[in-house]
Write a structure and sequence with these properties.
This protein has six helices and five strands, in the order βββααβαβααα. It is α/β, with parallel strands linked by helices. The protein has one domain (2-159): Nucleotidyltransferase, domain 5, CATH 3.30.420.10. It has a five-stranded mixed sheet with strand order 3-2-1-4-5. Helix 2 packs parallel to helix 3 and helix 5 packs across helix 6 (141-159). The protein is globular. It starts with a strand and ends with a helix.
Length: 160
């Protein structure tokens, strides 16, 4: 079983578990600050946001995962953030996979730490304590969240 975890954003956390034996985690930078500024100047209507295109390219692998698990952001401050996040989410749904699972942010934090409002530091510490083999050197908070999404997806699959 191949499970992907995605913490969607301009810096997208990606984690992958293959047959629950091989585990990788990293952060994909979908656009630099300069590219975002240039895009805003050149295409104010945001028709083809480079971040969506790059995410779609990253999700095209040579194999199809059994499950893609991603965070379901429920509250967004700004309209443009909401539009970006919805577009990233659509790119995930269009990626080839056997199934998808969206997880509310608070649910993921409670699964990881026992608290709905855990900090980034608490999420990282909990991963290190509970799954030390999945806490890889150089992981930022995006990769940590993606790792937790993989763990959540695997747990849900076991309980079905």
């Amino acid at each position: 079983m191949i499970v992907w975890g995605l913490d969607l954003g301009t810096k997208t956390g990606f984690a992958e578990s293959v047959a629950n034996t091989k585990f990788t985690a990293e952060t994909w930078t979908l656009a630099t600050e300069k590219e975002i500024r240039e895009q805003g100047v050149n295409r104010g209507d945001r028709d083809r946001d480079i971040r969506i295109v790059r995410l779609a390219e990253k999700l095209r692998k040579q194999y199809i995962p059994s499950l893609i698990v991603f965070e379901d952001v429920e509250f967004i401050k700004y309209r443009l953030q909401g539009q970006l996040w919805a577009s990233l989410r659509a790119a995930v749904w269009l990626a080839p996979a056997m199934s998808w699972l969206s997880v509310p942010v608070g649910t993921l934090k409670k699964f990881a730490t026992g608290w709905h409002n855990a900090t980034k530091e608490q999420m990282a510490a909990a991963l290190k304590a509970r799954y030390p083999s999945r806490c890889l050197p150089g992981m930022d908070d995006n990769a940590v969240d993606a790792a937790w999404l993989v763990c959540y997806g695997l747990q849900r699959q076991r309980n079905l």
